[in-house]
Amino acid sequence: MDYKALADFLFPDVKDTPDDIEARFPERDLPDGACVTRIGPSPTGFVHLGNLYNAIIGERIAHQSGGVFYLRIEDTDNKREVEGAVETVINAMDYFGVHFDEGATAEGDNGSYGPYRQRQRKDIYHVFAKLLTERGLAYPCFMTAEEIETIREQQTAKKENPGVYGSYAKCRDMSLDEIKTEIAAGKEWVLRFRGEETGETITVDDAIRGRLEMPRNNMDFVLLKSDGIPTYHFAHVIDDHFMRSTHVIRGEEWISSLPMHVELFNTLGWKMPVYCHTATLMKMDGASKRKLSKRKDPELALSYYQQEGISKDAIWEFLLTLLNSNYEEWRIADPESDYHEFPYSLDKMSVSGALVDLDKLRDISKNVICRMSSQQVFDGWLEWCSEYDAEQAALIRKYPERTLAALGVGRGGNKPRRDIETWKQACTFMSFYYDETFSVTDEMPEECDADTVKEFFTRYLASYDHNDDPTAWFDKVKAITEDMGFAVKPKDYKKSPDSYKGSIVHITNMLRIALTGHANAPDIWEVSHVLGEDITRDRLSRYA
Ligand code: GLU
Question: Whose Cα sits closest to atom 4 in ligand 1?
């Protein structure tokens, strides 16, 4: 077979040589040890948590080492492509604070290693498809889906490995004339790699999993599909070589394809990147762990976290906790530092499934928000509301000073309040600061009957002076408490409950409920001063 003639026949439009492509994408000029990483999401419209999980690893190891982190859009499967999906990926990554140095952007490309959308790289793939054909290592295959299914059935019956290889690869040895005849007849073809049965083993040192040993590839796997677009396998090898990736961070579901990738890197004589196969995201389902499922688990979608108003910092801290076993320890020892200062390392990664625990995420989110300044909370919350809750955004904009002051209640100090869990939950928690959304949900304590309620609020309002400092204010509350037969010290009431109607706890709960709608609320004096005298008197006088 004249492979050169076959290559010229199959790829008449290829003009560039492999050397031209090498020259177009030179080695990057980076300091020693700098890592070049990427994410390669497919534009299906669904951005999953795993995309962010892998993005954070890539971003960290690139930026910690003075390297480059880029975005490549893996759109070789056009059946799955959704309009606007590239923007969706970019916006989601941006929302979660993942910024690319280079790659696909909504407007086009940024960087000199592009195009960064695989469908625009067809000419590059074809140079190497042609090269492999010329070397007799790739050939056109005309097998139909039915024929492939038939051999799969035979293989299953004989307990052999499924796939197109060896004697099952029926188009391997077609002559040039036969090929020309088939193509002239309009038969569809794919380009297959010519695998070799050697019985050898390959080893790959995975940066997360250590040494992987697998049988060497013997499959005639597909390089180009019938529309001339490459498979993931071919595109991955070409792109990560020419975009000069040093590390390939991807999900563990790709481990089984590694022999094909190793075969291609070796055949083309290129240095392999360092592979980093990350653990699958799991969740607890009853007592057992299972994979997160797109169908059953809304939390697999990144949009879930946006809609729930989980801040980017909370997600980062949560994912870093999952990613590096020593992150939590570092955070406890150093509660103030920015998480970007954490020395992230690939060898501290778990290889068993990463457990996504939403309760833990909410807890981390509370801690993150309670460490923020009032202004940071204000900005983060308003930004979220502007997109997800227009009514709340309007209230914040109408009462900016009150909102900022409200966010300061219980903030700072050694034991800051942990009232706000997510931006969405902040809308519920903060609702009592605005008459527009205020409502009383809790019942008055049972120790306080209707007469007690009325008497208390009448006396409270009569003696209320908005200018009292917290001590003067509390002295007045205590005086009324005592006067009305309630214990000023809760422990006195506990000791002899029959001597009192209740304790100061019931009195202050009554006040909290009248003022905020809830017994569990921040400091009454502070809340009154955020609301101002008019609103305070107005809410309390409803009970007097
Ligand atoms: N497009 C692949 C995916 O979405 C990317 C895998 C890779 O990063 O190489 O799984």
Answer: 41
Q: Could you identify the atom of ligand 1 that is nearest to the CA of residue 74?
A: 1
Give the DSSP letter of residue 98: -
Contact indicator for 132, 267 with CB cutoff of 8 Å: yes
Residue range 196-208, pLDDT digits in tens: 999 999 999 999 9
For 402-447, what is each residue's pLDDT tens digit?
999 999 999 988 889 999 999 999 999 999 999 999 999 999 999 9
Comparing CA positions, the residue from 342, 376, 384 lying closest to residue 95 is 384
Dist. CA 250 → ligand 1 center (Å):
6
* Ligand 1 neighbours by CB, cut-off 6 Å: 40-42, 74, 236, 248, 250
- The candidate with the shortest Cα–Cα distance to 386, out of 95, 106, 97, is 95
In this structure, are residues 216 and 198 in contact, taking their beta carbons and an 8 Å threshold?
yes
Its pTM surpasses 0.85: yes
Q: Per DSSP, which regions of 232-297 are E strands? A: 247-251, 274-278, 281-285, 288-291
Rg (CA), the chain: 33
Report the alpha-carbon distance of residue 254 to residue 275 in Å, rounded.
10
Task: Identify whether the C-beta of residue 92 lies closer than 8 Å to the C-beta of residue 125.
Answer: no
In whole angstroms, give the CA distance from residue 327 to residue 320: 6
C-alpha–C-alpha distance, residues 20 and 541, integer Å: 83
β-bridge mates for residue 277, sequence order: 250
Atom of ligand 1 nearest to the CA of 39: 8
Helix axes 524-531, 400-408, angle to 10 degrees: 170
What is the set of domains in the chain, with CATH numbers?
A: 4-12+123-278 (3.40.50.620), 294-346+356-371 (no CATH), 372-435 (no CATH), 439-544 (1.10.10.350)
